[in-house]
């Protein structure tokens, strides 16, 4: 009986480890705190801590608090970590969830795919098995859409990042069959409110079903948003061209080195044939001390993957806004004709 119980516990533990994250459930108050913090400091980028519980396939975010913004002339020490610990201690004293489940940050037009974000994820993963990053875009929300995303790194990408120490080569990417699409995973978000809050919001709801968000969707002018997206997209295309030039330079150096190695090898073989004819010992056909046999370091492909991911994000935003704009313009044209 003891053996069966132990086997059952081991099976349950294994199931908990491999259970994938399906949904991020956020309390409405936590969502409002995130939106308020990001909008107050926009266009400056801010971050904060997410607190909650990890329950099976659901990651519950019940509370959050912002990180202080430091001035450039302030000393950067362990004050940030001490501030987090002090905040979590205070929350624990008032019986509020103080388990860290990730962090949130603001972004400008969805430009969050950076190496710093990946490094932050890997640092969180050292202490937290499953964590998420809530991304909020105030500029996108001004278009009448709640631009709130829950992102995490894919398991395959994290395994490759740990094994390669952040140095992504083409051979490793081909072995894992990893592309730019497989870096991040978006987790569905579910906003949850208690029954009392839902009842209170129903009492506060106005008689008119039209809200400010509905008016925002009717805005015909999307030029500023489209222009900024196109500017960022152009910058990403320039960055991608720079990365491609790095790879072209690398492949040219590899080809030049291989030609030098073949020439040196041919010369050494001719010399060995002469030595054999003279009855002397042949020389080795490899010389590690020779600079032409030193391997050339391949540039990492992580930056190009992130840039490609960012380009896809900008294109999707432009496509979505352009489609909505054409629909609004056609609607207004039909109204004017009538």
From TrEMBL:
<dbReference type="Pfam" id="PF19445">
    <property type="entry name" value="eIF3h_C"/>
</dbReference>
<dbReference type="GO" id="GO:0009749">
    <property type="term" value="P:response to glucose"/>
</dbReference>
<dbReference type="GO" id="GO:0009733">
    <property type="term" value="P:response to auxin"/>
</dbReference>
<dbReference type="InterPro" id="IPR037518">
    <property type="entry name" value="MPN"/>
</dbReference>
<keyword id="KW-0963">Cytoplasm</keyword>
<dbReference type="GO" id="GO:0045948">
    <property type="term" value="P:positive regulation of translational initiation"/>
</dbReference>
<feature type="region of interest" description="Disordered">
    <location>
        <begin position="266"/>
        <end position="294"/>
    </location>
</feature>
<dbReference type="GO" id="GO:0034286">
    <property type="term" value="P:response to maltose"/>
</dbReference>
<dbReference type="GO" id="GO:0003743">
    <property type="term" value="F:translation initiation factor activity"/>
</dbReference>
<dbReference type="GO" id="GO:0033290">
    <property type="term" value="C:eukaryotic 48S preinitiation complex"/>
</dbReference>
<dbReference type="InterPro" id="IPR050242">
    <property type="entry name" value="JAMM_MPN+_peptidase_M67A"/>
</dbReference>
<comment type="subunit">
    <text>Component of the eukaryotic translation initiation factor 3 (eIF-3) complex.</text>
</comment>
<dbReference type="GO" id="GO:0009737">
    <property type="term" value="P:response to abscisic acid"/>
</dbReference>
<keyword id="KW-0396">Initiation factor</keyword>
<feature type="domain" description="MPN">
    <location>
        <begin position="24"/>
        <end position="157"/>
    </location>
</feature>
<comment type="similarity">
    <text>Belongs to the eIF-3 subunit H family.</text>
</comment>
<keyword id="KW-0648">Protein biosynthesis</keyword>
<dbReference type="InterPro" id="IPR027524">
    <property type="entry name" value="eIF3h"/>
</dbReference>
<dbReference type="GO" id="GO:0005852">
    <property type="term" value="C:eukaryotic translation initiation factor 3 complex"/>
</dbReference>
<feature type="compositionally biased region" description="Basic and acidic residues">
    <location>
        <begin position="268"/>
        <end position="279"/>
    </location>
</feature>
<dbReference type="GO" id="GO:0008237">
    <property type="term" value="F:metallopeptidase activity"/>
</dbReference>
<dbReference type="GO" id="GO:0009744">
    <property type="term" value="P:response to sucrose"/>
</dbReference>
<dbReference type="InterPro" id="IPR000555">
    <property type="entry name" value="JAMM/MPN+_dom"/>
</dbReference>
<dbReference type="GO" id="GO:0005840">
    <property type="term" value="C:ribosome"/>
</dbReference>
<dbReference type="GO" id="GO:0001732">
    <property type="term" value="P:formation of cytoplasmic translation initiation complex"/>
</dbReference>
<comment type="function">
    <text>Component of the eukaryotic translation initiation factor 3 (eIF-3) complex, which is involved in protein synthesis of a specialized repertoire of mRNAs and, together with other initiation factors, stimulates binding of mRNA and methionyl-tRNAi to the 40S ribosome. The eIF-3 complex specifically targets and initiates translation of a subset of mRNAs involved in cell proliferation.</text>
</comment>
<dbReference type="GO" id="GO:0003729">
    <property type="term" value="F:mRNA binding"/>
</dbReference>
<dbReference type="Pfam" id="PF01398">
    <property type="entry name" value="JAB"/>
</dbReference>
<dbReference type="InterPro" id="IPR045810">
    <property type="entry name" value="eIF3h_C"/>
</dbReference>
<protein>
    <recommendedName>
        <fullName>Eukaryotic translation initiation factor 3 subunit H</fullName>
    </recommendedName>
</protein>
<dbReference type="GO" id="GO:0016282">
    <property type="term" value="C:eukaryotic 43S preinitiation complex"/>
</dbReference>
